[in-house]
Amino acid sequence: MERLRQKRCKEKRWSHGKQLRANKKKKEMSYSQAGNPFQKKSNEPRKTTKGKGRNFRTVKEGAGMTKKGVAEYKRKNPGSKLKTAVTGKVKPGSKAAKRRKSFCARSRKWKSKRGLAARRRWKC
Fold first, then answer.
1. How does pLDDT run across 29-62, given as a tens digit for each residue?
2. In this predicted model, what pLDDT tens digit does every residue of 3-18 receive, in sequence order?
């Protein structure tokens, strides 16, 4: 009786595993046929740091978004309050000084090249 029970359990496990593999293959086929469902479906050009229509600065230039890039982002996202970096001299206690202080506090742990370049640009 015990052997029969073990045999049934083994058969069930094996058949269940077989079903899982079959389902996985179906999913893989449907993804490849329909394209990646998680991929962003957009006709927008890729964001880049090179060329005429770029939206981001290179690392050497201090990283971050360009003025044109911010304007484009605002057009696509109405109501956005995105602004460019505070790079000039500011009066202590002004809005710009507070933005800089806030950014520097948020980005203190950034260690990548782009992050460090952005912090340099913001004068952190």
1. 555 555 556 665 555 556 677 777 788 888 888 8
2. 666 666 665 555 555 5
Q: Report helix, strand and coil shares of the chain as percent, to nearest 5.
A: 50, 0, 45
DSSP SS3 for 21: helix
DSSP code, position 65: B
Question: Can you tell me whether residue 52 is helix, strand or coil?
Answer: coil
Q: Which residues contact 49 (CB under 8 A, 6 or more apart)?
A: 56, 57, 58
Answer yes or no: pTM beyond 0.90.
no
Q: Is 54 in contact with 69 (CB distance < 8 Å)? A: yes
Residue 80 is classified by DSSP as -
Please tell me the distance from the alpha carbon of residue 53 to that of residue 47, in angstroms, as a whole number. 9
Beta bridge partners of 65: 56
d(CA 90, CA 97) in angstroms, rounded, equals 6
